[in-house]
Amino acid sequence: MKDVHAMAPARGQLTLRSVGVSGIRKPLAVQRTDRVHTLTATFRAAVDLPSERKGSDLSRNAEVLAEIVDRTALQPVHSLESACASIARELLQRHAYATEAEVEASAEYFLERGVSDAKRSFEDFALFAGAVASRQAKGGARVRRWIGAEAVGMTACPCAMETCRELLLAEYPLLADPRLGGLPVISHNQRNRTRLVFELGEDAEVEADAMIAAIEAAQSSPTYAILKRGDEGRVVLDAHRRPKFVEDVLRDLLASLPERFPDLPDSVRVRASTSSEESIHKYNVDAAHEVSFGELRRAAPR
Amino acid sequence: MKDVHAMAPARGQLTLRSVGVSGIRKPLAVQRTDRVHTLTATFRAAVDLPSERKGSDLSRNAEVLAEIVDRTALQPVHSLESACASIARELLQRHAYATEAEVEASAEYFLERGVSDAKRSFEDFALFAGAVASRQAKGGARVRRWIGAEAVGMTACPCAMETCRELLLAEYPLLADPRLGGLPVISHNQRNRTRLVFELGEDAEVEADAMIAAIEAAQSSPTYAILKRGDEGRVVLDAHRRPKFVEDVLRDLLASLPERFPDLPDSVRVRASTSSEESIHKYNVDAAHEVSFGELRRAAPR
Amino acid sequence: MKDVHAMAPARGQLTLRSVGVSGIRKPLAVQRTDRVHTLTATFRAAVDLPSERKGSDLSRNAEVLAEIVDRTALQPVHSLESACASIARELLQRHAYATEAEVEASAEYFLERGVSDAKRSFEDFALFAGAVASRQAKGGARVRRWIGAEAVGMTACPCAMETCRELLLAEYPLLADPRLGGLPVISHNQRNRTRLVFELGEDAEVEADAMIAAIEAAQSSPTYAILKRGDEGRVVLDAHRRPKFVEDVLRDLLASLPERFPDLPDSVRVRASTSSEESIHKYNVDAAHEVSFGELRRAAPR
Amino acid sequence: MKDVHAMAPARGQLTLRSVGVSGIRKPLAVQRTDRVHTLTATFRAAVDLPSERKGSDLSRNAEVLAEIVDRTALQPVHSLESACASIARELLQRHAYATEAEVEASAEYFLERGVSDAKRSFEDFALFAGAVASRQAKGGARVRRWIGAEAVGMTACPCAMETCRELLLAEYPLLADPRLGGLPVISHNQRNRTRLVFELGEDAEVEADAMIAAIEAAQSSPTYAILKRGDEGRVVLDAHRRPKFVEDVLRDLLASLPERFPDLPDSVRVRASTSSEESIHKYNVDAAHEVSFGELRRAAPR
User: What average pLDDT does the segment A118-145 reach?
Assistant: First the structure.
C-alpha cells in the first residue's frame, strides 16, 4: 500500500515539535508498598516530525501504549512516571525519524485516610506524570521525567477571622476578656485544591504519597469522607486554628520541601499552585510559583 | 435529489419519541426592564418521528433556530422561555409528520449585585428554560413551558456549629456566660448551588429575577464579587447567624414560594434542588424535591 | 452532644424526597468472567426525609459506601448494580426514619477490542447503575435496580452519501456503469455515542458486556484503538456499507434487543439514546426513545 | 481594622510569582466593525507578591474587573486583549508592592457563516487573550499582549482515502479507468479543532476574525450550522478533495501566516495546535508547534 505518511508535505515544510495521540484512557496497574493500585489514566503520546515527512505513524503510538500499559494488568509497574518513561523510550525506537518523544499522563489515585482507624476510607487524589526522551548523538536516549500530585483540603481565611473578631467584639465586649485569648472565631472556609509538580530529571525518584502528605500538611486541614459529629467539630476547629490564605498554603508547602525531600538534588524544579473555592465569592482565589530545590534550600532559615 | 429521510426505515419500524439537534450555541438578546441582556445560550431542539419515516429533516431545526434566535440581535425577545416556545411552535409547522416538538435552553445570566451601591458588579447566575408544543387534533398546537434559575450562595453548617460550641466550651468555660448568649461560633461553610424550576404550563408567567431572589434568600447568605474587609466580615457573620443544612435551604425555599409568587396557579409544578460543596469533605451534600404550588399552599401554616 | 439533625425543622415542614451525598469517587472491584476489573466509580446515595426531622444523618451514607465499596478491594462484587442494591438496602437499615433509599453510580469500563487478536487492546466504555430500596409495610425492603452502558462507535451519513453520489455522477458519468453498482461513495462520518439503560426491577439480571455488544452492532462500525493501514481502510469501508442516521442506530438497537436478551421479562423498561458528533456541523444530532421489552416484542416482525 | 494581608508571612518568606482571582465570569461588550458583540468572558487576574508581605489585596482585582469590564455595557472596548491590557495596567496601579500583573481571558465568539447568503447564521468560535504589565524602573509599565482564536472545522484523512481506493479497486477494477482519475473516494472524516495564538508584544495589532479565517482555510473544510441537502454534499466533497492530516492542517496554517499577516513584525511568536476527533478511534490525534513570524518568513518559499 502507498505510504502516504512518508511522502513529502505539500506545503509548509516545517519540522513540527509535537504530533501525537491524546485522550487515550487506560487502566494501569501500579505496585505500591501496600497493594496494587489500578489507576484509570489518560495518556498523551507524541513525537516530533521532520520537515521532509508528511505524517507521523501514529498507529505506533497506540500500539506502544497498548503493549506497555495493557500488560501491567499482569505485571504492575512501579509508578505512573516510570510507565511514561518506558513509553517515551519505546516511541523513539519505533519512530526512527523522531528526535524527541513526549508522554504525559494523569490519573485519579486513592489513598486510605481517616480521623481514626475505625473511620478510614479511600479518598481521591490526583496524579500527574510525564517523560521526555531525547535521542542522543551517540545512540540511545536521555529521558527526563516529572511527577505531580494534587490534593483537596480546606482553608479558613485569616483576614475574615480578624474582621469578624472585631465585629463580634463590638457586640460582645466580654470577648476581650483574657480568658478567651486565642479563641478561634468565625471565618469563611472552603475547599482548597493544591498541586505540586517535581521535574525530576533523569535519576531522581520520589514517592507520590509523600508529595500528597506535604500538600495536606500545608492546608488549614485535610478533609475526610467519614466524620462523625465530634470529628467534624475537631476538623473545623483545627482549620480555624491554622487559618491560611492561598499565599500561606503555597509558601508553607514550598518551605517544607527541603526537609521532607532531603534526597532530591538541587536541580529538581518545583511547580506549585493552589486554588481556594471561596465560600463568600462565586470565583476562586489562587496562587502559583516555580522554583528549584536549590533555591528553596538557600532560602530556608537555618 | 433522492429524499433519503422520507424513505421507510430498514428495520425496527418504531415511532421515536425525540430526534433533534443539541449543543447549538447562540447569542440571544433578551429585553429586560433594566436593559437588553445578551445571553450565550445552548439549545436542544427535537421532534418525534413516525414509524414509517427513516429520518427527521434536521436541517430545519438549525434553520428555525437561526431565524428565531439570530434575529433577536435586532429585535430582542421577552424571555428565554418565550424563545423556546416560539421555536417549538415553528418546529411543528415545518415537521408536518411530527406530533410534538421539544426545545430546551440553558444560559448564563448576569445581574448586578453588591453589599452597597459603591460595590455593585455583575454576578453570574444560570437560566434554564424549555417548551413542548403538542399538535392538537383540531389544528394548532398546545405549548407548555418551563423556566429554571440557579444561584450560587453560601451555607454554614448548623450541626458543626453546635459541636464546635461544645468543644470550645470545654476549653473556654467563659463561653457559657449569658453575656455571650447567641454568639455565633465557628462552623464549616461553603458554596451552595441551588436550582429552582417551575413548570408553567400554557399561560403562567414568572420573572427569573424573582426566582433568583427567592433562592438567595433561602441560603445562609448570598455571595458577592466585591467585598472590602468589613463587608467580608458581615457576610461571614450573616451566614453564621443563619446556619443551614441543604435540607433547610430546600424547605425554606419551598415554603417561601406561595408568598413570593401569589399569582402562579396551583397547577404549576416546582422542582427544586440544592447542593453544598462541603468544605470538610471532598464530596457534595445535596437535596431535591418536587411538589406543586397547590400542595405548597395547602402545607403553608396560616 | 446535641443532635441537631433530629430537631424539628424551623420552617417548611415538608417531607423531602431525596437528601444525600454525591460525587463520591471510589475504586470498586468487580469480578467478571475474565478477570477482576477495578472500576473508578462515582456514587450518589440518598434517602427521603420525614417532615418532622430537620436533617438526614449523612455521615452514615459515607460509612455505608466505605464499608461496601472499599471492602471489594478484598472481595470483589458481581456487578456495579449489585453494589448499588447492597448500598441501598443498608441505607434503609441505618436511616430508620427513611422509607426509600436511592443509589446511583457511573464508571468507566475497559474491554479488550481489536480487529484481530494481534491488535487487541483495552478500549473504554461507560457503565451506569442504580438501585431504589423501598421499605415494605411488612418489614424488609423491595429493591428495584437499573443498569446502563455506553459505547462510542462511528456513523456514516446515508443522506450525504446519496447526495455525493449524484454530485460525483454529474462529474464522472462512468459511475453509472453497472459494474460500479453498490460502490460506497464519500459521506460525512463521525463519532457516535450510544447509551442503553435497562430498568431491571427486582429479579432480572443482564450482562453489561452484552449491552455494549448490542450498541456496537447497531452503529455503522465500532471503532478501535489500534488500526494498521489496511485495517483502517476496512473499518472505513464497513462504516460506509452500513450508513446510518441516529434514527437508524436507535431503531436497529431497539429492534435487536428481543433476540439478544430473550430472558428479560416484558416488564423491563428500556431507555436508549444516541448522539452523533457531526463532522459537518459544530453541533450534535441525537435521538432518544423509551419503551418496554413487551412493546418491543409485540412490534418485532415475525 | 487589622491589615492581615500586610503582615509578614509566618514561614516561607518567598516572593510568589502569581497570586490572583480566577474563574470570574463577566459580560464584555466589544465594538467590532459590524456590530457590538457581547462576549461572556472568563477572567484570571493576578499579580506577584513580595517576600515580606503575607497576602495580596485581592478585592482590588475584583474591583478593577468590575470597573473596566462592567462599564463596557455602556462603552464597548475595542478587543478582548485591549481589555486585558487595561486591567493589567490598573492592577499595577493598585498593588503598589507588585512588579508584574497578568490577566488572561477566554470567551465564546459568534460570527455569521453560511454556504450562501440565504443560509447564514451565527456560528461559535473561541477567543483567548492576555496581557502582562511589568513595572518599569523609570515609572510606568510595559505591557505585552497576546491573542488567540479557535475554530472547529473538518478534516478528511488522506491515508485512509488511499487505502480505501486500493480496497475498492480490488473489488471494482473499473475504478482504474482514467475517466475516473481524481475521483475522491471514501475516508474517515471528523471534527477538527484548531487554535492559533499570537504573542503580539507591545504594539502589534491583529484582528481575531482574520485569525479565524486563516484557521478555517487550513482545515479540509469549514463546517456550517445550516446545510440543505445539496450544500451538505458539496461540503463533504470539498473536504474529500482537500484531505488533511493534523500535520497538514498545522503546516498549511503556519505557512499561510506571512501572506495573511504582512504587517506583523518578525518578533511576534506564534503558537498553533490542532486536534482531530478521529471518527475511527475513541481518542484524538493532535499536533502543536511554536515559531516566530521571522522564522516563518525565512522558511517561506519565494
Answer: 95
For residue range D121-139, list pLDDT tens digits in order. 999 999 999 999 999 999 8
Rounded-to-integer distance, Cα C299 and Cα A98, Å = 58
Residue position matching grid coordinates 462565586: A282
8 Å CB contact of D163 and C283: no
> Who among A38, A119, A229 is closest to C1 (CB)?
A229
Q: Of chain C residues 174-193, which have a CB less than 8 A from chain B?
A: none
- Contact criterion met (CB < 8 Å) for D122 and B26: yes
| Helix count and strand count (H, E) for chain D | 7, 9
**Fold (CATH) for D140-302:** Urate Oxidase (3.10.270)
> Taking CB atoms and an 8 Å cutoff, what residues of chain B touch C214?
none
Measured over the CA atoms of residue D218, residue D220, residue D226 and residue D230, the dihedral's sign is positive
> Each residue of C111-124: pLDDT tens digit?
999 999 889 999 99
Cβ of A174 within 8 Å of Cβ of B172? The answer is no
Yes or no: say if C159 and B55 are a contact pair by the CB < 8 Å rule: yes
Cβ contact C35:C59 at 8 Å: no
What's the complex ipTM? Answer: 0.94
Domain spans of chain C? 21-104, 140-302
Kindly report the three-state secondary structure assignment for every residue of B21-82.
EEEEEEEEEEECCCCEEEEEEEEEEEEEECCCCCCCCCHHHHHHHHHHHHHHHCCCECCHHH
| Optimal mutation site among A3, A14, A277, interface D, most CBs of chain D within 10 A | A14
- pLDDT bin (cut points 50, 70, 90) of residue A12 is low
pLDDT in tens, A204-247: 899 999 999 999 999 999 999 999 989 999 999 999 999 999 99
Strand D121-135 with A284-292, pairing? unpaired
Cβ-contact D219, D190 below 8 angstroms: no
Secondary-structure class of domain B17-105 per CATH: alpha beta
Low-confidence ranges of chain B (pLDDT < 50): 302
Question: φ, ψ for residue A280 (rounded to 5)?
Answer: -95, -5
Query: What is the reported pLDDT for C203?
Result: 85
Contacts with D232 from chain C: Cβ below 8 Å: 159-160, 163, 188, 280
**Hey, which residues 81-140 in chain A have their CB within 8 Å of chain D?**
none
Q: How many CB atoms lie within 10 A of CB B85?
A: 24
- How crowded is residue C76: how many other Cβ atoms within 10 Å of its Cβ? 18
Q: Give D-chain residues touching B109 at CB under 8 angstroms.
A: none
A203 pLDDT band, cuts 50/70/90, is confident
Answer yes or no: pTM beyond 0.90: yes
What is the distance in angstroms between the Cα of C22 and the nearest Cα belonging to chain A? 11
Q: Write out pLDDT tens, residues B108-142.
A: 999 999 999 889 999 999 999 999 999 999 989 99
C78 touches chain B (CB under 8 A): no
Helix, strand, or coil here: C125? strand
| Residue D155 and residue D238 in contact, taking contact as beta carbons nearer than 8 Å | no
> Which positions in chain D touch A293 (Cβ < 8 Å)?
none
Tell which A residues from 190 to 249 touch B, by Cβ distance under 8 Å. Answer: 190-191, 221, 223-225, 227, 229-230, 232-237, 239-240
